[in-house]
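Hello K.,

You asked for the raw outputs rather than the summary table, so here they are, unedited. I folded two proteins back to back in the same session to keep the settings identical. This is the first:
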Amino acid sequence: MDILDKLISLAQLSGKVNVKCEFGGQWAVAHSARAGQGIVHIVTQGSGYVRLANQAQSRLVKQGDILFFPRSSEHILSYASHCANCETYPTAYTQGAFEVKKIGQQADFGLFCAHFYYDPHAELIKSLPDVIFLRLEPQNFTCFVELLNQEAERELIGSSTVVNALSNVLLTLILRTYLAQSDNQPTGLLKGWQDKRLKGVLNAIMAEPEKPWLIDNMIETAHLSRSQLIRLFKQHLSVSPHVFLHRIRLQKAAMLLKQNADSVLTIALATGFQSETHFGKAFKKYYGITPSQYRKQAVSDNSK
């Protein structure tokens, strides 16, 4: 499991491709910001424009483009580059696993929308910009869209399971493509990981955060001096090595609280904490609730 696999796992990502849009004529659709959520637009037909709420200029988007808003930043999609006070409201109906949204009699712009949910503290999400624009390899894009269209047009058994699984594939492809493009400059952990001097120690910490990591272990793994290690962590991750380790331990603990029924003490020890009391205080300070409350909240969310 590489660092991207680890980050996706710790982020507790779940998602679904659950909306298909068919817009025609003069249209504009606004998307509001939503905490703990991300949204992806996959343009499958025609062209339009997107503008973020904090930007004056719109950007052309066309068939084959993918737009990923990791924090669901407020934005508007429209038929024209300048579209003041022209928001339109689509009609909606359910078709298989999708909610289909339509504007106009004949569609000249189409897209699928995927929604993602994650741990708001996730290092992965912190490392990404407000919006990512990219195009997948043509064969990957074509195959993906064909599968979605098949599920949307035919009410097949197990359709929801298929499209939800596709959403995880989609997000991984987006992140892989984004990281492979040399002109992109991630921040935080991903930026640090791209620095060869930190890559080894970050991989080691992410692989086994429960180990009794001391600064001496870290500098030995990184082949750096103490001052170099601390400086590079501050430069790329804006925190000390031990603060980073502490965050990763807590995020792994949160993941385990959701995934299995082990006792809080067992999870505390499995993630590098010396006692349940120490773990409980640290967890509440970071997440705002106790480990037990976090687990109950997760069970409640899953039952909805």
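The second followed immediately with the same parameters:
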Amino acid sequence: MDQAEQLRNIIKRQNQPDGMSRVITVTSGKGGVGKSNVSVNLAINLSRQGKRVVILDADFGLANVEVMLGIRPKYNMADLMFRGRELQDIITKGPENIGFISGGSGIQELTNVTKSQITYLTQKLYELDSLADIIIIDTGAGITDSVLEFVTASSEVLLVATPEPTSITDAYALLKILNRKLEFSSNQTAIKMLANRVDSKEAGKQLYTKLNLVVERFLTIKMEFLGSIPQDSNVTRAVMQQKPYSILYPNAPSSRAVYEIANILCDNVSEKTQPSVGIAGLFSNLLRIKSKR
């Protein structure tokens, strides 16, 4: 029995469907589209609506989320998996009471864990399911093995794109690969697109329509439109001050837009295309994908 099968069996024995957190994986086809900024400010606004939110930074080697939150975590996922730290040790408190977990190298080392470590990790991840209503996974930028593994393992994906031609092209390239991978996967993924740095709501919808026409013609996956965030100079100012723009400039166009998007996500929580498998279920899928490589 391989490690992925061991983890799936553990999850089946400990299945707690009513206690599963909702996991939203935020990704993009290329860097520089504001993905991490979306993750951070979406988390802020979901927390303001009474949700317990944790961000898991899966962008290995970079610290974009840490910089935007203005925090420096002492521990990361590897400390939980291999160095005996408890889950509470690796959760750093951020603004508006959101939690933050640095992925570090821990997620990349999943394929090296022993059976006992799998059991321990699964138990701890179930604990996280009970501590958070929503877990936002901020993936790395671009089309890497790590990004593809996370996206393929997820039940809910938020794809961030901008009007730049390269962003649209790379977003489609990501969707094309995801479409191929999901054809051979038992996992079903709900994909939502967010148009970032657009001139208007109409421009955001046009961006979605343009991309979705190609998706519907050539791919079998489905993609829905979540909303758009306008081009806003306050976003750059907030990054320079290492603070979320939703906190520094709550009345800015970008802040109002991400507030609306958070509302939409909260309103359709009971209408998601696919039920959440929780963070432990996602890692079970992730390990299964890794074991097939």
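The longest helix spans residues 165-182.

Happy to rerun anything if the numbers look odd on your end.

Regards,
P.
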